[in-house]
Write a structure and sequence with these properties.
Elements lengths: L1 H24 L12 H9 L5 E3 L4 E2 L2 H9 L9 E9 L8 E8 L5 E2 L2 H6 L5 E9 L18 E3 L1 H4 L13 E2 L27 E7 L4 E5 L14 E5 L5 E6 L14 H9 L8 H7 L4
Antiparallel strand pairs: 1-6, 2-6, 3-4, 3-6, 4-5, 7-10, 8-9, 9-10, 11-12
Helix pairs in contact: 1-6
Length: 290
Amino acid sequence: TWTMSFGRVVLIFWLMAAAFGLHMLKDVPHPHPYPYDVAKLREFAEDDAKNQRYLNACICGERIMESFKVHLAIFWSKTPWFLYVQHYPCDTKSESWTVVCSGVLITKKYFLAPEECMDHFREESECYRVVLGYNHPKIITKPIKSVTELGNRVTLGELFHGVEISASTIPICLPRGNVDAKTFASYQMVTMKEKNLPIISPLKGSVRIVNNTLLEVIPTNRSPNCEPNLGDAIVHKGEDGRFYVLGMYTGICRYGSPYFLNIFSILTHIIENIGFTCGMENLMETWHVH
């Protein structure tokens, strides 16, 4: 009958879509970190005496941004990668580089850095190179005051000098006690419930955006697996006891199974252009992060 014929057409379409999706996934970055050999990534980063790797010899002006988009995907892992921008004048051949700013890798395309860091990229007469650092102790933002000192409220102006921040954000958990940066990656919440990933210690609260100028610590009884809630921010508590904002999300991509064997997840993954988080680009524009 025509119903059976139509059903066959639909079935063939889905089978072709599945084959295409699986073919595409062979050659693209994967949100789950373990398809990459973490041990090799670690060895790649640590075999340099200074714990760094140079991605480019010299990049002038705004072209540094295109360099990030080209090179960063291969370094994805469960450990945060810190990026440092060094520069010297283009009209010299000096090998004396100066670190002008630093940031942390948020997705395969973007890194988070203070606004003054972005200003350096607008100087067309200067040369820059990007340094990939592994597990560097420095944090990218200016520290905010102790949450308890401010009555569980802190102003974002202290962090980014008044840069407006979107209120539509997503998740992170605030770990208990002092947590080293390498155990607290901004993208970890998306794959947090996978068995192979380390579980962050039990929570004592989350940080939620109240409006465009305030953050509020929300006490929580969430489990150590930390199912994130809409509106949570990405926060790191440094060894100095102060909190550092590492980033924020505008949405969580739910892909179904961990390895994207679900056909709907595969198609969604392709349609979203291999995104690690949903809605990240609009948020990055708000944060002046490229």
